[in-house]
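Model: Ready when you are.
Researcher: Fold this.
Model:
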Amino acid sequence: MTDTVSGTSGTSGTSGAPGASDPSDAPGAVRPPADPGAGGFTEALAEATAVASLAPSSHNCQPWALARLTGERARAAARLFAGTGNRTGPAGDGTETLALAMDRTRTIGALAAHDVEMRVSCGAYWQLLLSALAAQGWHPEGIEYPATDGEGRRLAGDRWPKSWSLLGVARVRRTGDGDGSFRRLRETAAARRTNRGPYRASGIGTDVLAELTGPSAGAAADAPVAVTHLRGETERRAFGDFVARHGGRDFSHDAAWRETFAYLRPNASAAALRGDGFTLEQLFGPMSAARHHLLRTALAPRTMRVLRFAGYPGLLASQLAAIVRRTPAVTVMHFLADEPSGADMVRAGARLADYWLRATHAGLALHPVSVVVQHDDVRAALAERFGLRGRVFFVARLGHPTAQFPATPRHREAAAHLRL
């Protein structure tokens, strides 16, 4: 059975309410203070960026950047809201202005599809940030997306980092002391992670799936995205066959695999020191030191160039396909358009973050199967095989995990923003 929900709208619900190459996961540690909200915007933003830093991103590269615009720069940004119906007053009348950017020093780009992934990752960060601010009483009164990535320099001049591409601007206003939901949002964001292990064979109820695809708020509201669930046995088996046929593509693509391997840290300590990337344990679960050494050697780009002639990428694809076939549901997210705009990509990332947090709150886990969306011909074949309209940008296993996977470290944590 295939369920598709298109372009959900409305303003009810928040990220984390009951019903992010692979987006990665969040550290398990959760800070214990009570719900914030009584302080000023500086304190609220520090709390919000700490939550937003837990957003999923491909390769755990964390490509987002954030600027707080003040003074003349905030007034310059106000023109983005003129005539949109979002502007409720002049800049500086108790509003705060935030600018979301993509930091190209932290992006991946071996494949053309990676640009979409980076913008989607930034959108996931944006949704968590705005949701965390709203939970503390700072609600968006307007969100706008500039026509070009270079708009940031027009807003902030030479102070705008050259490596940053402006993606969105939001104006927020204090409307109260918060609704008490911040703690749950923070805990759910910390619990969210990619789980690549086995899932229980039991199905997922239609009521649960309906909660996952319900209306979203913030940057995710009215996102031009459809969600399709493949959950019939025939469909899941067909998807497993598709993965078996195409899942070795990344391993046999020199540039893509070199880039992926560059984010594979030798151990947890090295990952913690770098604050990004992932370890073999986060890919395959706990393993002995001997297996760790053997697997890392086998996955090294130089080794992979030799092993591909022996069919090793196909073997890895068949192993992934086997676990996919045992999964109770597969989540597919696709744009409503074949050629989405940059704004569509950011809003899609916001929708993905909302979906993933709702799944986490429901006790479900996600394991992205990104190889089927990163190559144009494979992605087109996937859409044709399962009758998916628009461009597919996210595919993942969905189910109740039978084991926990370790969290990935984060480079950008609290107060990770630039004040301009």
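Researcher: Now this one.
Model:
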Amino acid sequence: MDNSLSEQWARLQDITRTLREPGGCNWDRAQDAESMRVYLLEEAYEVIEAVNRNDPALIREELGDLLFIVFFYSRLFEEKGVFSVQDVMRDVSDKLVRRHPHVFGEQKDHSVQEVLQNWEKIKAKEKSSEREAFLPALLRAFKVQEKAARKGFDWENARDVLPHLESEVAEFRQAVADGESSARREEEIGDILFTIVNCLRHLGIHPETALHRSTDKFQDRFARMTESAGEGFMDLSLEEKELLWQKSKQK
């Protein structure tokens, strides 16, 4: 089998079309743009998980799954006569050339900061809204803060953020102590999370990565707890479970 890019491109395109046509897969034929949103999100996160594991074989596999979703979405709209996967590729190629004048044009920006500032200027001309798209909350906060920083609205370093973090924690404590409404407490805890993201950004730590690692650590320790206790885990007291938790941290 020809392993050229054009051959593999055509093969995936044909497979996607066949799955959607009469006589294809009933599940694939039943999907639409809305129902596929969850699978798009899942595949994107599975790529991230593979990268976190630093597993090239898994990264390759998950990128393939994500690429199929792109072809599938494009096919959905091609069936309606709206656009094709070729249109998608042409549009993104045009955008990349347009937003990299320092590579494909006469402008010669070299520093990362200059490149990012110029990217934002070009993007602002192309899009009327400055509002970030729907993203996971931590990632959205990170991107909003990065954009504000590129426009000169930012703290100097992480040390400057810490007093504000302490202030936000104090405000949350007070809201809880005063019996404030759920909406008020939600607002205050949101401020804490937003400030934590800002602190992490200044330290060069991505909040999504940090939280994923902490979640993985919790899962591993909790698995050791339940494995150690066996089927009787649910019957243990909270104090007994805490002892198992402390032991799991020592391994």
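Researcher: Key takeaway?
Model: Residues 31 and 88 are 20 Å apart (CA to CA).
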